[in-house]
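Format notes (please read before filing issues)

Several people have asked whether sequences and structure tokens are stored in separate files. They are not. Every record keeps both together, in the order shown below: the sequence lines, then the token lines. Line labels are part of the format and must not be stripped during preprocessing.
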Amino acid sequence: MNAPRALILRFAQAAAVVSVAVGIFSGVLLALVYEPSSQSSTVRLYRAVSDVVDTSGDILLRRGDVAAVEQIPEHRGMLNALSDTAEAPVSVAARSHGLLASSVTGAIVLRVHALAASALILGLGAVWATMVLGGVSLRKHGIVIGMIALTMMLAWVGTTLSGTSRALDAYQIGRTLIVDNLPVVGDLAAVFLPERWNASRQFALHALWLTPMLGVLGGVVARRWRWMVGGVECGIVGLALVVGGVIWGMVDPPLPGGELRKPAWYLGAPYALFHVLPADATMLVVVFWWGVMVVASRSRSAFLRKTAVGMLGVWLSAGAVASLLLGER
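Then the structure lines:
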């Protein structure tokens, strides 16, 4: 393996390992506040008499907007209660997630957690690409591509935990694609993905799926990558994740109430396909694309292996573009 590819592999492996650690640590902090319950709760509604801004001057609510004041961070502006009984039913999960998103610390931890998920997908993708291009054994890069798919599933479940309207839509889209359009696999998935969104079930899946990820990564690092994943690379990646999450949380905090602005970039491709194609056609495209990619990656032909790596790059890049273009409020 040439020197540039070896350097990329070292940092990609470090990103995969460190992002799991950062994701678990930030997830534990979030779990201290988040309440995974679908039971109904109520919040008092207020109308903005004037534009409401946060401490940095960014507009949170415009005049006439209605919101639950409990979910709005420290602000300047006038708010009036709609009435003595003006309340809106929300789930306990949505309310607790909104409280997290409305605080500075909660917003930062949420962003660090989201950044760790992105880093894990990018890190695993880079590891897989270097393995495929370097002609590493089929079993090894087969495990890595499986970890990428598992991570995307894990991250998708995480995006539904806020309990907001868009989060529930994301859950229904994903469930429809998997349960209703994948024979056999869909039947098994239906056991874990009930027809109606269930916060406690989704939270358990999101947390428990980290166990095999951590076990596989830990085993691989201990047995195969022990000499390749150094403390310097892990330190650089870990610091970048934390600093990046802090800056992201301060510059672009989650919306009041924990609402989604747009789909996660790694989920943008199926999101876009679902909005232009029927569900069965969308899943057919997904299965065909990933199937061809995996088959090409196992070929002895260097051209086909490069094609497989390119297909993964196109999929992720298209998802990022779709997230930007289709996810605006």
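For reference, the curators noted about this record: The beta strands are 40-48, 52-54, 59-61, 66-68, 75-76, 79-81, 87-91. Confidence is low (pLDDT under 50) at residues 84-88, 224-228.
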